[in-house]
Amino acid sequence: MSDRDELMVAHIPNEFILAVKRAMGDAQDLVKKCDRRSNLSNDLPTMSPNICIINFYTTSGRLGLHQDRDESRESLRKGLPVVSFSIGDSAEFLFGDHRDVDRAERVVLQSGDVVTFGGVSRMVFHGISPVIPNSAPKALLDEAGLRPGRLNLAFRQF
């Protein structure tokens, strides 16, 4: 983007910011519980989200292993976390230290699950295997009108 370009962006609604902060607090509590020697400012620092990347995956959607590197150098250096909310159909979340699907760890994310990674894990390779069709809560589809697939909201601080 050049100095001449203007980009209009919407502000992140306060309810979403509060949900992110609540998720970060829960993640920090879990880190403390699992490792009492943990230094949270290094292991899972806090952040104020000012970016939300929204991805919708159709019932055949997937995302290959990658690292999120689009934030500022300062944000990446500090290991400021990504807080990712899953809505809709389930999908297998892959993650690991290498860009190798066969070596990646896997966990199924269901609607309502939140993944937080930051600190030394900030540059983890991660991705989504194909969406598991028809796995979303029926009420979500009926009441919210979400079409089949998976919606992901990934919050970050630039």
What does this structure look like?
The protein has 158 residues and is α+β, with helices and mostly antiparallel strands. The strands form two sheets. A four-stranded antiparallel β-sheet has the order 1-8-3-6, covered by helices on one side. A four-stranded antiparallel β-sheet has the order 2-7-4-5, with no helix packed on it. The protein starts with 13 loop residues before the first helix and ends with a strand. The relative contact order is 0.24. The model has no long low-confidence stretch (mean pLDDT 87).
For the structure shown, list the relevant keywords:
single chain; 158 residues; alpha+beta; 4-stranded antiparallel beta sheet; 24% helix; globular
Biggest beta sheet summary: 4 strands, antiparallel
Shape: globular
Please tell me the overall pLDDT. 87
Strand order of the largest sheet: 1-8-3-6
Please give the radius of gyration in angstroms: 16 Å
Cα separation of the termini = 15 Å
Strand content: 25-35%
> How many individual β-strands?
8
User: Helix tally?
Assistant: 4
- Helical fraction equals 10-25%
- What is the element string, with H for helices and E for strands? HHEEHEEEEEHE
User: Which residues form runs of ≥5 with pLDDT under 50?
Assistant: none
What would you call the structural class?
A: alpha+beta
